[in-house]
Write a structure and sequence with these properties.
Layout: H1 3-7, H2 13-24, H3 33-50, H4 56-71, H5 78-89, H6 92-101, H7 105-116, H8 121-124, H9 129-137, H10 146-158, E1 161-165, H11 171-185, E2 190-195, H12 206-212, E3 219-222, H13 237-245, E4 248-252, H14 254-260, E5 267-272, H15 276-282, E6 289-293
Helix pairs in contact: 2-3, 2-4, 3-4, 5-11, 6-7, 7-11
Length: about 300
């Protein structure tokens, strides 16, 4: 399903309001009112000018650049990323055993990887460890579209080359377990995990991949971009080749969905529904796991 077929080209009013809500209160309270006004004019203009052609991650990146330029403010989530990497690493062995002992190890590993998409500092600015642990515990019972799950499992077992686009820190540990299970079910597959090329929000970079040992199960490639999401025009040549020529692309997270939807039928998007817009689009409750076919 192509996002433009659902909500039309560009970003809709829900995304505009969300982007503005996050940007409007981001400047320092003690900034001179003239600078506050100039900042607001600029971030409003970015939304107004970009809403017909840019994705939400691209607009958010431009807004963040204005905040940094004018006030020197830049979110540094290094400590939080390390905390969640270590939190989920501490559960890796237990989850791995549960996957191996389940009736459908690949399906269970997919559910666990979907649960990991909860670790996202974008929608709320914070992540509840308690809620995360609850979701991990409930992963075996996650309700998924059985046809979409079966189709994905079939593609995984038949693919010769798989590009796996990661999303967030911590989540990347559960991606590692899924990739391990993919290689167990399809030992001949060549899997390449693709991470962000530079820090952005709490997205996984090469540093995170090495911290959690993702490189011990498959090749890891930095995409050369600091955009939250994967815009083919902004990633390096190796990433573009992987997207274009892999038998299967597994893309984690809403930012990857928003930037890649409609760009290839070989893609399967895996993410949790984390906002009201996508609750409406897919007619599902919050935190529902979704497997969406690309076109």
């Amino acid at each position: 399903m192509d996002i433009e077929q659902i909500i039309g080209p560009g970003i809709g009013p829900e995304c505009m309001r969300c982007l503005l809500d996050k940007a409007v209160g981001a400047y320092p309270d003690n900034a001179p009112w003239q600078e506050q006004a100039e900042y607001l004019r600029r971030v409003l203009r970015i939304v107004a000018d970009g809403s017909d052609s840019l994705t939400a991650p691209e607009i958010a990146q431009q807004q963040a650049a204005v905040l940094k330029e004018m006030f020197g403010i830049e979110r540094d989530l290094t400590k939080e990323k390390h905390r969640f990497n270590q939190l989920v690493l501490g559960l890796e062995d237990v989850i791995g055993r549960r996957i191996a002992e389940s009736d459908d190890p690949l399906g269970f590993a997919i559910r666990c990887a979907l649960v990991g998409n909860f670790i996202d500092f974008g929608p709320t600015g914070d992540v509840s460890e308690t809620k995360l642990l609850q979701l991990i515990d409930e992963a075996p019972h996650m309700r998924l579209d059985v046809c979409a799950l079966a189709e994905l499992e079939g593609r995984i077992r038949e693919a010769h080359t798989i590009a796996f686009l990661t999303d967030n820190c911590g989540e990347v540990v559960l991606d590692k377990l899924l990739i391990g299970q993919i290689l167990h079910d399809n030992p001949q597959a060549q899997v390449t995990a693709i991470v962000r090329g530079a820090p952005t929000s709490n997205d996984a970079t090469m540093e995170d991949a090495l911290e959690v040992g993702l490189d011990t199960v498959c090749e890891v490639l930095g995409n050369g971009s600091d955009l939250a999401g994967t815009s083919p025009s902004r990633v390096n040549k190796r990433t573009r080749n992987a997207l274009a020529h892999s038998d299967l692309v597994i893309a984690k997270g809403l930012a990857n969905y928003e930037t890649l939807s409609g760009r290839g039928a070989n893609t399967r998007f895996l993410f949790l529904c984390k906002c009201a817009l996508y609750q409406h689009v897919f007619d599902v409750p919050l935190h529902t796991g979704l497997i969406v076919a690309g076109v």
